[in-house]
Design goal:
Elements (H helix, E strand, L loop, with lengths): L1 H26 L2 E8 L5 H13 L8 H4 L3 E7 L11 H9 L12 E9 L4 H6 L3 E8 L2 H4 L9 H12 L4 H4 L1 H9 L8 H19 L43 H23 L6 E6 L1 H7 L1 H15 L20 E6 L10 H19 L6 E5 L7 E7 L2 E8 L6 E2 L2 E2 L6 E3 L48 H9 L5
Parallel strand pairs: 1-4, 1-5, 5-6, 6-7
Antiparallel strand pairs: 2-3, 3-4, 8-9, 9-12, 10-11
Length: 486
């Protein structure tokens, strides 16, 4: 009954927030665009490039409102939510353009508002629309999104799912210390704070090991264990799943009762406020994934990414709002899954990367019984760090990419200093995505992915720097925002 009342309370608060947003939107129309992604997918880079290209007249041929000249003015404005940190656009662009370094990863929620003045393509709309749209970009870590399924799981379900994952594949070798510790502490014995801390520390170390670059696993809730912020050391982050829980309810004063209470506190004080105050207010959503990293790590990492996508897509309150319902509730009516870092491949493999991402999404939607309405998949590069060329090798012409590897990158035994350019053949992605998921007997392709520095931007004769180059950023903008500027 308590959970039902909590749900009613949350729904009421969401309805009030939505009504206030809609009332404000009658005067100043806006759309809230959520931007998230799984680890190292490039959320900060995507937002910085999108805004930089809009403000600096970037090449956006597939973004119809800009291509047709209907947009007359674009500017940054103060964001509507004073209690949310501002996305530090100027600092991130300075890192990209001046320092040629990638900006820091998203560690918390932030927001930025960019407003476009435009002329509607419809004469009828021009009579009633103010010709202005504010885009409120909400940036948040993908780990927070993967926490939302916990709202529908009790402690027993959470423990069973987490332990089952931990005992499979490469996770089994990473989780040994934590599972052994969890098994040694009887669920029905007397609770001890020292045991609780040791369990939480061991569980967190296991999650961090799964996330490391050379493993690149994606399904790692609870997300705040990896980025605790000001909650570090609090009871809400000092818990752990337990193994082999007996039937019935936890005995009073037991480790089981302590962990269950703290798990519920995590949901109440961490996950629910994020859902109610931010996620439930979104209109559109882009989820960025680093499919190339998963491909490089093998079938297990890809299957784990697929599971993460299923968990992510199950969170969205997808669907089209009716005129009346839109004043009381919001539904995310367009979701874009974008495989990033397409510039790490020759363009001949871009459509293959897109097919691989589409295959992962299709399998994920099948698993959760979700329709593909309002859902699109594409391969893009928010910032294009390379250019394409060809080289002759043993009498064959190879398509290569040319860029400046990040300092410390090693290619064929050579360690790069961050200044020297090089050409590499990244390899060819397979035409059949099932090869990578090991649903066929074909051998895995040999791929060579290298981290590059952001590109050097030349200045025009007027001293103005050109906009940040990209791949298909305009196509993403058209899907997510084009209809709101029609």
């Amino acid at each position: 009954m308590a959970s039902i009342l909590t749900s009613f309370k949350d729904d009421a608060l969401i309805a009030l927030d939505t009504l206030a947003d809609r009332a404000s939107g009658l005067v100043n129309p806006s759309v809230r665009l959520g931007v998230t992604g799984l680890s190292r997918a490039g959320k900060t880079v995507f937002i910085s490039s999108l805004v930089h290209n809009l403000l600096n007249g970037g090449r956006l041929p597939l973004f119809e409102p800009v291509r047709s000249g209907r947009v007359s003015k674009i500017r940054l404005e103060p964001q509507p939510d004073d209690a949310v940190p501002r996305f530090q656009y100027e600092e991130h662009v300075s890192a990209l353009v001046r320092d040629r370094t990638w900006p820091d990863s998203t560690r918390a929620i932030s927001q930025l508002r960019i407003t476009l003045d435009y002329e509607s393509a419809s004469g009828w709309n021009r009579m009633f629309s103010p010709g202005r749209l504010s885009i409120d970009i909400v940036d948040y870590p993908g780990e927070w999104l993967l926490d939302l399924p916990l709202l529908s799981q009790d402690f027993r379900q959470f423990s069973e799912a987490t332990v089952q994952r931990a005992r499979s594949g490469s996770r089994a070798t990473l989780s040994g210390d934590w599972l052994a510790l969890a098994s040694s502490i009887g669920a029905a014995t007397t609770a001890d704070e020292g045991d609780a801390r040791r369990l939480a520390t061991s569980f967190t170390a296991y999650l961090k090991a799964c996330k490391e670059d050379h493993r690149s696993l994606s399904t790692l809730p609870p997300g705040r264990f990896l980025m605790p912020g000001d909650l570090e050391g609090s009871p809400a982050l000092t818990f752990s799943p337990l193994t082999d829980l007996p039937e019935g309810r936890p005995p009073k004063g037991s480790p089981w009762a302590m962990m269950e209470r703290r798990y519920e506190a995590y949901k109440t004080h961490v996950v629910t406020p994020f859902f109610r105050e931010h996620f439930a207010r979104l209109d559109r959503q882009i989820v960025l994934i680093d499919a190339l990293q998963a491909i490089n790590r093998g079938p297990e990492a890809l299957r784990d990414l697929e599971q993460a996508l299923a968990d992510v897509l199950a969170c969205f309150r997808q669907g089209t709002n009716s005129w009346m319902s839109s004043f009381l509730t919001r539904r995310i009516d367009r979701v874009l899954i974008a495989a990033t870092k397409a510039d790490h491949l020759h363009h001949e493999s871009h459509d293959r990367l897109e097919r691989i991402a589409a295959r992962l999404v299709a399998r994920a939607t099948e698993r959760i019984g979700m329709s593909g309405a309002g859902l699109d998949v594409m391969a893009l590069a928010s910032v294009r760090a390379t250019r394409e060329a060809t080289v002759n090798h043993d009498g064959h012409v190879l398509p290569v990419i040319v860029g400046t590897p990040i300092a410390g990158e090693r290619i064929n035994g050579e360690i790069f200093d961050g200044e020297k350019k090089t050409a590499i053949f990244p390899g060819d992605l397979p035409e059949n995505p099932n090869v990578l998921l090991k649903e066929t007997d074909h051998p895995l392709p040999e791929l060579n992915f290298v981290r590059f520095r952001p590109p050097h931007l030349e200045e025009t004769r007027g001293g103005l720097k050109l906009s940040v180059p990209h791949i298909r950023l305009d196509r993403a903008m058209q899907f997510l925002l084009g209809d709101r500027l029609a």
